[in-house]
Amino acid sequence: MNTSAPRRGGAADPARLLAWEVLRAVDERGAYANLMLPALLNRRRLSPRDRGFATELTYGSLRAQGTLDGVLGTVTSRPVDTVDPPVRDALRLGTYQLLSTRVPARAAVASTVELVRATCGERPVRFANAVLRRVAARVEETAGDVAVLLSAPDVSVDPVGHLSVVSAHPRWIVEVVLEALDGDVAGAQAALAANDQRPGVHLVARPGRIGVDELVAQATAAGLQAHRGACSPYAVHLEGGDPGALGAVVAGDAAVQDEGSQLMALALAAVPMVGRSSGLTVDLCAGPGGKAALLAAVLATERSPGEGLLALEPRAARAGLVAASLAGFPAAHVVRADGRMPPVRPGTADRVLVDVPCSGLGALRRRPEARWRRTPADIAVLAPLQRQLLVSALDLVRPGGVVAYVTCSPHREETSEVVSAVVGQRADVVTLDARRSPVFADVPADSLGSGPFVQLWPHLHGTDAMFLALLRRRSD
Fold first, then answer.
1. pLDDT tens digits, residue range 396-432?
2. Where does this protein hold S-adenosyl-L-methionine (predicted)?
């Protein structure tokens, strides 16, 4: 099906129609909303108000999908998963408007019915109208309280079940977050709520190419609100706007990069070396290249001229992105290779960054559909790969050198358990306390976790939920 246009034709509201098209693409062919939505917005001539409404509808409906289906399930005589998918997506959009926007109930129902008529024809119109009227009545009866609407269990009896309902997350993700926060229910609720907040845009001012103050000034001159980041000395935060319009970004002097990701690379670069340097840093899983480029910039400006970076990436498209990121760094090179079989002699690298493929649970705020797309089975597949890559990294680093193990996830099966399993089998490795890195000097120590690892969080640090372990190969 072509989701760039309605199936039946009709006079649907353009913002709602665009949101429906994105939901269909996500549901039908596994598209990523954060890629699909901007592409559609760029092709449509919507007013700024409609662009904003389409964005809210799209991301909000995808994030709240479980809640929306739960609400629909209370008013329909058939299971929600048996409803024709195009109709179901329209009903989700209508229910989201009734629950979470200021759109009057009558307008939300009527506009959604018109959306169904335009995209699905006349046959399901009566059904959609009846369902949405019942949803509107239920929302009015309960004042939109999701806990009441879906009969959420009491938080003191079943905290996981309660948080799953009120935060619109699958139960297993709530369990992951609660465990990572050592059972802190209030902290878990704040972390889950942060996944519903639209993430800010973070830029990295690559050292030696542009300064932070210069980048802030350039953004301000372009009409963007910008200020220095909280932790990374190279971070700039934008309060909305298109960073791609900045000359520094076009030239590769700056790039979009979450401040947490910056801190991961900088923490590795800041670890003092022990023993004779080889002058080689390796990024074992470099795609798409943001951390590699920051490492290359730091090496070029703060280390001896002979130090180089080797970035490995097995997939051609991503290797191309890495090469583009490293353009202008003559001591940095990209090789297409699997990090488990690096084309480098073992025991020769000073530093190895292994930013392993992971579930991405730490970046759910950036991919609203991911919370419903990921399953526990994904972790079971990823964990063995993560262990293999960490073993490869430790074999590659020289005695006295350091490995940074990084994931964008708070799941212990991808983070501390991977590190503990590998380090527990190696007498030649010592775990450093990552919290003591000078990179985190301005971050409250009690917010970084119990150590020796670092776990960042959106609700505490304003970054993705990045995990860091620093491991040194013994030199004795």
1. 999 999 999 999 999 999 999 999 999 999 999 999 9
2. 285-291, 313, 338, 355
Indicate if 408 belongs to the active site. yes
Binding residues: 285-291, 313, 338, 355
Is pLDDT of 4 > 70? Answer: no
The CA-based dihedral angle spanning residues 244, 248, 250, 256, taken in that order and rounded to the nearest 10 degrees: -50
Structure tokens at 326: 């490293």
Q: What pairing do the DSSP bridges indicate for beta strands 429-432 and 467-473?
A: antiparallel
> Which CATH superfamily, name and number, covers 14-146?
NusB-like (1.10.940.10)
Binding-site positions for S-adenosyl-L-methionine read 285-291, 313, 338, 355
How would you write the chain as a 3-class SS string? CCCCCCCCCCCCCHHHHHHHHHHHHHHHHCCCHHHHHHHHHHHCCCCHHHHHHHHHHHHHHHHCHHHHHHHHHCCCCCCHHHCCHHHHHHHHHHHHHHHHCCCCHHHHHHHHHHHHHHHHCCCCHHHHHHHHHHHHHHHHHHCCCHHHHCCCCCCCCCHHHHHHHHHCCCHHHHHHHHHHCCCCHHHHHHHHHHCCCCCCEEEEECCCCCCHHHHHHHHHHCCCCEEECCCCCCEEEECCCCHHHCHHHHHCCEEECCHHHHHHHHHHHHCCCCCCCCCEEEECCCCCCHHHHHHHHHHHHHCCCCCEEEEECCCHHHHHHHHHHCCCCCCEEEECCCCCCCCCCCCCEEEEEEECCCCCHHHCCCCCCHHHHCCHHHHHHHHHHHHHHHHHHHHHEEEEEEEEEEECCCCCCCCHHHHHHHHCCCCCEEEECHHHCHHHCCCCHHHCCCCCCEECCHHHHCCCCCEEEEEEECCC
The per-residue pLDDT for range 108-166, each reduced to its tens digit, is: 999 999 999 999 999 999 999 999 999 999 999 999 999 999 999 999 999 999 999 99
Q: Where are the domains of the chain?
A: 14-146, 156-194, 201-256, 259-473
Phi, psi dihedral angles at 44 (to 5 degrees) = -105, 150
One of 120, 231, 358, 408 is an active-site residue; which one? Answer: 408
Q: Indicate the CATH number of 201-256 among 3.30.70.1170, 1.10.287.3510, 3.30.565.10, 3.10.300.10.
A: 3.30.70.1170
- Band of the pLDDT at 245, cuts 50, 70, 90? confident
The residue type of 432 is: L
Query: Residue 387 CB: number of other CB atoms within 10 A?
Result: 17
